Amino acid sequence: LSLSHETYRLLQPLWDYMLLHHRPLISSPFFPVLLAFSSYLFFSIPFAVLDILGDRVPFFYQYKIQPDRKPTLGMMAKSFLTALYNHIFFVLPTVIIGVFILPLPTLPQDAPTLYEVFVDGLAMLLLFDTQYYIWHFIHHKHSQLYRWIHAIHHEYMAPFSWSTEQLSIPELMTVGLWSNQDPIILKCHPLTTWFTTVFSLWMSVEDHIGYDLPWALNHLVPFGLFGGAPAHDMHHQKPSSNYAPFFSHWDRIFGTAVPLKKKTLKKF
Ligand SMILES: [Zn+2]
Ligand SMILES: [Zn+2]
Q: Is the whole model's pTM more than 0.85, yes or no?
């Protein structure tokens, strides 16, 4: 490789390091699940601490979207244990079955370029956003599908970080299937896929934190392209609105976008 070519692959040292020192881990079929679940844990914990502290930290509590609805420790434990149970008893066995029937993925020598990470990552997010929008719309319109598959996610009108993965087994498996198949369909580099996994987990948790933080993605990205916590919090208050998980375009196009009406705390 010439030097000029190398400069376009800024991630090559990272990728070389991973291949050299962590090949058994990153080539394991369990790695994507481990990455996704630990991202859910890692991103949820700080907001769980905030939820426990509540109005004792007014600096953050001023941004709480539904200040009159606080999650209890019991609600937090139920959400987290549901996610843990589903991963241990359904996701892991599915991965083990996959080991026997799916071909072993091979890791390329070249790292992706930053351009590839951005474009392929964006393509994955847009595809997933579209798939989930359609799935989500159908599961709110069909009463039996709603009752048996999606209702468990709507147990709480005010979401909190752990409730991100309070999902039924069919919903978790559907989302997991797309997360696995979309990078194959779009021919994404594994590193791009893993960055996107972590980023999409961040966006999913941010959807559910219950705080409209001024530095959240939906405020940083212009034109309201990202729905974020205000849009998804509204979905939990008014379930016939804001079906898209990440972006706002499908809800705008199909007229299901509803802006958040923020309740103000009387005390402040
Ligand atoms: Zn939700
Ligand atoms: Zn819903």
A: yes
